[in-house]
Design a protein that fits this description.
heterodimer, A: mainly alpha, 2% strand, B: alpha+beta, Immunoglobulin-like, 3 domains, five-stranded mixed sheet
């Protein structure tokens, strides 16, 4: 075909994938990039706000006997910090990255279920409002990020603080399920021709495993919180021992979700790391097969070790030993992954730009967190470590070191693709060093504090404990990290306009997303790429092979087979619609109402049904003659 | 490494509330396990950092070298990967086995010699009850646990309201205290001294100030203490003290507190029969002295925000009499 003909074809494709301008376009869009962008911006805003809460707590604890906060304020602060970070930041930001990246890495134009992606975001936003609007009204959950009954039951927590926490979870978990189903379907059915499972980039493997885990793990926590709400709302007695209930049932259900959740946060990070290490080492990743097997085995093992959060409840010892062994076993696949990344760097020709610095910071920090995890995995030793600052240190090492550092790496790595501009490399390095140093100065002393007997979730301590010095050091470290975080944010904001123009492939990336323009147009790719290797952009001899034939008149995506990615058929891809937003609002009304009355489930289901009928109402499809 | 140094350095982190200063068999076993873990994990961490340093040094040094050919041998890396896997597995087997053995040792206390003590956790204080060896009656105290050195004590842990966790780090690991269950914790203290325990599971507003003092005493001291605790309070002869007792028995105090030997028999708060002998008051919030006693019952909210103890409104002379009486309850 001639160049002019190609260009006019692309203009037609762009026209059918473009959103309407203005507010209506904003509310109805099903463009995965726009949805993911608002998802990511929301999570990052919450990361900052919940980070400020952390700073506030660190100031309170910086010296013995401080009176910045009383117990109520402090309990609210750590509850809000933990609930926000776990449910509203860490899990959703990884899903959001997947929403943005998966179609681009697949050379596709959208997710498998575009409207479900929109619904997922609006529902997630409902969860954000569920927690933070009541906080503005001073009705803040105050029992931590896991609210064990009977403390969270009707007797000991009257009022609505516990309900708000429980329903916030319902919102975010429905949103997460919607996102996960979408990611799984997209990865299995929308791969470009030639991208067999064995040629799939590791990020896609990571998201596939994560999303399957999400679908298996989240129902457990929704069950736990729903039973809690039933206890509080209609007087069921699931968790009251006096009426034959069992308080430990809640813990089992919660941690059956809660432990896999840690890996639901960590495994996407593994995907980022593999992508970044490959690109910046300028060689294909060492040990691809080992990495894939490691991902799958982490995904399986993650469901067999929830009890290590409950070693102190007084379980039979032999059973506890099983969970000790299972928890320690996870060090093997993770250890192999670490080896493969270092081996890739060491045998490549790495360029040490900011994203790779973050990855090196990740290795140094996360491995320490993994090793303290091995210590807490020991059933007897955990009795000294659990619920102390040792665990606070451990969980921040694995979540910040293990997931946030790779996330920052990913944000700096894909920022040029998303915005078309480069971040300042110099300020990027400054922010890395400040956050890396500040984090380690801030959280390393907490290991020692825990061994010195400092329990977690205390709002103050006395001088004789001797905890003052290390706490002061910790608070100082967190202040340094906050300065780095401010620079990171400022760098991102200023570079949006002032950054150097990026071009399609500023880093010499290996995967398909670097083949489309930066920022990607609404239709992402002019034609479906055809893949011949694991690193399709590192071909030596010829230009990118493509496949044409998708409609120029309506939105279409190419469906391929799950294993070998053989083209099967063209699939109509739904366009912009207001119904996902209306459905989310109807669902939200039902969720919020059910805090107050069980009848909300009955009457609230009517608007939900109406909205869903509107959503799925069949429309005449313009068939295209071929 | 810094962690290793800080922890292996003797005396660096000692104290009455520290994992690193064991004063009993269970804590000592756990401390040994901790040291083993620190060595094994420390070595593994050093290996990872060494490998990373090798990768950085190698690549930074030859930054401008030619790109590696596609068939540059990966054999050394593969062998390394296999060796690394073997090392990780060996380390994990070592640690799991050690962990299993320590777990067995924690359960190995000899039951027939054990001293049985019942501890009931409340929001936010501890009820401690002993069997009187003579009469078989329960002897109660609060927020203070006496243990004879060298003898295993079997603690029966029960919760009155929500989940708490019993933790005296110098003596043993923690064990949750759960409504509807009785958890058993064996402790074999060895070193005489005062230690501190604290609730370790978030239990509501004042989780922070839910401490207890633990005295590991020579056997004779323990027996004498128990005998003294078993006795009822005597009648004060001093008129000020008598006035204090009158205020206690006929005022609001008696609704929640027991003083054995008087008509005061409320059960929802701590037994105060020998409150004057205790080291601290208000669930470990304040050291025991007359001023603190008075400040505590006049305005508990100021000293322990959120406490379930109501304020007692009294003119200053009467408050003084009440505080003197409480202090006198030895």
């Amino acid at each position: 075909m001639q160049q002019a003909e190609l260009a006019s074809e692309e203009a037609r494709v762009a026209a059918i994938w473009r959103d309407k301008p203005g507010l209506w376009g904003f509310l109805t869009t099903v463009d995965h990039k726009r949805i993911a962008a608002r998802y990511i911006v929301t999570t990052l805003a919450l990361l900052i706000v919940a980070g400020i809460l952390a700073l506030d707590m660190r100031l309170q604890l910086s010296q013995p006997g401080m009176e910045r906060m009383g117990p109520q304020r402090y309990n609210e602060a750590f509850s809000l910090h933990g609930s926000t970070m776990l449910f509203l930041v860490s899990v959703p930001v990884m899903e959001a990255m997947a929403l943005w990246l998966v179609p681009l890495m697949l050379g596709q134009r959208n997710m498998a279920y575009p409207r479900l992606a929109a619904y997922s975001y609006w529902l997630y936003l409902g969860g954000v409002l569920m927690l933070w609007v009541p906080h503005a009204l001073d009705v803040t959950p105050d029992l931590g990020w896991f609210e064990y009954p009977p403390l969270s039951g009707p007797t000991y927590s009257p009022g609505h603080r516990a309900d708000i926490w429980a329903q916030m979870i319902t919102f975010t978990e429905v949103a997460a399920l919607a996102a996960s189903v979408n990611v799984v379907a997209t990865i299995l059915k929308l791969r470009p021709p030639g991208m067999t499972l064995a040629r799939m980039p590791l990020f896609l493997w990571a998201m596939l495993v994560t999303s399957l885990m999400t679908m298996l793990a989240l129902p457990a926590v929704m069950l736990a919180t729903s039973l809690l709400i039933a206890d509080r709302l209609v007087g069921t007695q699931f968790f009251s021992p006096n009426a034959g209930g069992d308080v430990l049932l809640f813990q089992h259900l919660f941690w059956f979700f809660g432990h896999p959740e840690v890996y639901i946060i960590f495994i996407p990070a593994v995907g980022f790391i593999s992508a970044i290490v490959e690109t910046f080492s300028r060689r294909p990743l060492f040990g691809y097969t080992v990495q894939v097997l490691a991902l799958i085995s982490i995904g399986l093992l993650a469901f067999g070790l929830w009890v290590h959060h409950m070693f102190a409840v007084g379980l039979p010892r032999l059973g506890a030993s099983f969970y000790t062994a299972a928890s320690m076993a996870i060090a093997l696949p993770v250890g192999l992954q670490i080896f493969c990344w270092i081996a890739t760097i060491g045998s490549g020709r790495p360029r040490y730009d900011t994203p790779l610095l973050w990855i090196i910071g990740f290795i140094v920090t996360f491995v320490l967190g993994g090793l303290s995890g091995v210590m807490t995995a020991s059933a007897p030793l955990d009795l000294q470590l659990t619920d102390t600052y040792f665990v606070v240190a451990h969980l921040h090492y694995v979540l910040v070191g293990g997931a946030m550092f790779p996330l920052f790496a990913a944000l700096t790595y894909w920022y040029p693709k998303a915005t078309g501009r480069m971040l300042s490399e110099w300020w990027g390095k400054v922010s890395f060093w400040l956050i890396f140093a500040g984090f380690n100065i801030g959280f390393f002393p907490m290991h020692i504090l825990g061994l010195m007997g400092m329990p977690r979730r205390i709002y103050t301590y006395e001088e004789w404990t001797g905890w003052g010095t290390l706490n002061l050091v910790a608070s100082g470290g967190v202040l340094i990290a906050s300065a780095g975080a401010s620079i990171l944010v400022a760098n991102a904001l200023f570079s949006l306009r002032g950054g150097r123009r990026a071009g399609a492939d500023p880093w010499g990336g290996s995967t398909l997303e670097w083949d489309c323009a930066s920022p990607p147009p609404p239709h992402n790719f002019p034609a479906t790429p055809v893949v011949e290797s694991r690193t399709p952009l590192w071909r030596q001899e010829h230009a990118q092979a493509v496949m044409t034939g998708l409609s120029l008149k309506r939105r279409e995506v190419l469906i391929t087979s799950p294993g070998e990615a053989v083209p099967e058929y063209r699939q109509y891809s739904p366009g912009p619609s207001i119904w996902p937003l209306l459905s989310a609002i109807a669902t939200g009304i039902l969720f919020v109402g059910s805090i107050f009355t069980p009848w909300a489930l009955v009457w609230g289901s009517i608007p939900v049904a109406v909205a869903l009928i509107g959503w799925f109402w069949p429309r005449p499809v313009k068939e295209e003659p071929r | 490494m810094a962690l290793l140094a800080a922890i292996l350095l003797p005396g660096a982190c000692d104290g009455p509330h520290s994992v690193l200063d064991p004063a009993g068999d269970q804590a000592a076993h756990l401390h040994g396990l901790l040291n083993l873990m620190l060595w094994v994990c420390g070595i593994m961490y050093a290996l990872v950092l060494g490998f990373l340093a090798w990768a950085l040094w190698r690549t930074i040094r030859r930054r401008d070298a030619a790109p590696p050919g596609p068939d540059e041998s990966q054999r050394p890396l593969r062998i390394g990967l296999g060796a690394w896997a073997g090392l990780v597995v060996a380390g994990l087997i070592l640690l799991s086995t050690a962990s299993f053995l320590v777990d067995r040792s924690l359960a190995a206390a000899r039951e027939h010699e054990a001293l049985s003590i019942r501890i009931t956790a409340h929001q936010w204080w501890w009820r401690v009850a002993y069997r009187d060896p003579a009469s078989g009656e329960w002897i109660e105290t609060a927020n203070e646990l006496y243990l004879p050195a060298g003898r295993t004590a079997r603690l029966e842990l029960v919760a009155e309201d929500v989940i708490h966790s019993f933790w005296v780090p110098n003596l043993s690991g923690k064990l949750d205290v759960i409504p509807g269950r009785t958890n058993l914790l064996d402790i074999t203290p060895r070193r005489v001294g005062w230690y501190r325990g604290n609730c370790a599971e978030f239990c509501g507003l004042q989780h922070t100030l839910m401490a207890l003092d633990v005295r590991v005493a020579p056997p004779e001291e323990f027996s004498a203490w128990l005998a003294a605790q078993a006795a009822s309070a005597s009648q004060p002869s001093d008129p000020v003290l008598a006035r204090g007792q009158d205020l206690f028995v006929n005022g609001t105090c008696a609704a929640c507190h027991v003083v054995r030997g008087t008509p005061a028999d409320g059960r929802s708060g701590p037994d105060l029969t020998h409150v004057g002998t205790r080291r601290s008051i208000a669930g470990g919030a304040l050291p025991m002295n007359r001023g603190n006693l008075q400040g505590w019952f006049l305005n508990p909210e100021a000293l322990k925000p959120g406490t379930l103890m109501p304020a007692v409104v009294l003119p200053s002379q009467e408050a003084d009499a009440l505080a003197r009486y409480l202090e006198w309850l030895k």
